[in-house]
């Protein structure tokens, strides 16, 4: 489709995947097939060599992948996108594609747990050195750069403390050193933040979260220049984290309403954060939309809304926080975030066999025993606040 005018994001979510071959079906068909026929061996050979060919073999590409990729590239403002069977599938393929033995990575310390394990355990086994820095300290990124730094990894807002990285300033530092930059944009979504517009080379997503939005699929994506995405694709088809066609179809269905859902997540997130910040039994609230957030000014500059994810410390210990979770009626206890329904989790409870040493290590990262992470859904904000108020009042 070639529109005469630049289409708005909410329109792109609905139409960026259209192609003349769609025919009469308004809702896209599901290409539930592993493979595709060719008219000649020559045509097939060409299909095998074409990155993300949508009609060769589904590990390489599929029309349902191509539709999601077209929408994601259009809303993030990238040339190309790649979908994977999980956020970690996209993140791991990106790291393995771009790095080799002898390379150095600068990453912020506060990262999604899977990404942190990739950086602390997997990459070092393959001779890649990683330096961790405080995401709020731009000078620390500059100080950590080395001659062999190939990649600077950011996550903003970060999981689970909603830390904010000054993306444009870190990009300047990385560019001056000739390193690529990547931002995990899962928690913001492209409605609230578009890192490519801030000069970042690659955007990563757990599409399991806001992009899918309905807690019914696991998926991931990488978005950037065609050159970089083709390079990641070559590794991706070897690692094999292929998104199932049906899950790609569901993800596209979720994406259609991303703009509408994010507007409500933003509204509800702010209302619930403000309520918790004023509650006598809440010690501290972590939400970039509150003026008390240490990097609220940076968040305001680089984000259009602050989303539905927040964390707060109950005024009490681990067991007090656990009791709050148990007493909630509407808000359910589950990991993950970004779905239409509100979910709460106690990060300190997620470490297996948590003992004194693990608790101390978590606290050193800022994850206190009484911390609760709340993914605010699209329910009525008053109903959510009443649920929280009654659970907190029994402390
Ligand atoms: C959930 C999440 C991931 C991992 O995504 P999966 O789809 O679970 O593999 C990566 N980064 C962030 C910020 C996340 O919240």
Coarse structural class: alpha/beta
Output mean pLDDT: 95
Query: What coarse outline follows from CA principal-axis ratios?
Result: globular
Return residue spans where pLDDT drops below 50 for at least 5 consecutive residues: none
The major beta sheet can be summarized as: 7 strands, mixed
Biggest sheet strand order reads 1-7-6-5-4-2-3
Bound chemical compounds: pyridoxal-5'-phosphate
- So what's the CATH class of the largest domain? Alpha Beta
Radius of gyration: 21 Å
Report the helical percentage: 40-55%
The figure for the number of domains is 2
Specify the CATH architecture of the largest domain: 3-Layer(aba) Sandwich
Tell me about this structure.
The protein is 41% helix and 15% strand. It has 395 residues and is of the alpha/beta class. Helix 11 runs parallel beside helix 15 (381-393) and helix 13 (318-327) packs across helix 15. The longest helix is centred in the C-terminal third of the chain and has 20 residues, at 258-277. The radius of gyration is 21 Å and the shape is globular. The chain starts with 8 loop residues before the first helix and ends with a helix.
Give a brief outline of the structure.
With 395 residues, the chain is α/β, with parallel strands linked by helices. The chain folds into two domains: 9-256, Aspartate Aminotransferase, domain 2 (3-Layer(aba) Sandwich), CATH 3.40.640; 258-393, Aspartate Aminotransferase, domain 1 (Alpha-Beta Complex).
List keywords for this structure.
Aspartate Aminotransferase, domain 2; 12 strands; alpha/beta; Aspartate Aminotransferase, domain 1; single chain; binds pyridoxal-5'-phosphate; 41% helix; five-stranded mixed beta sheet; 395 residues
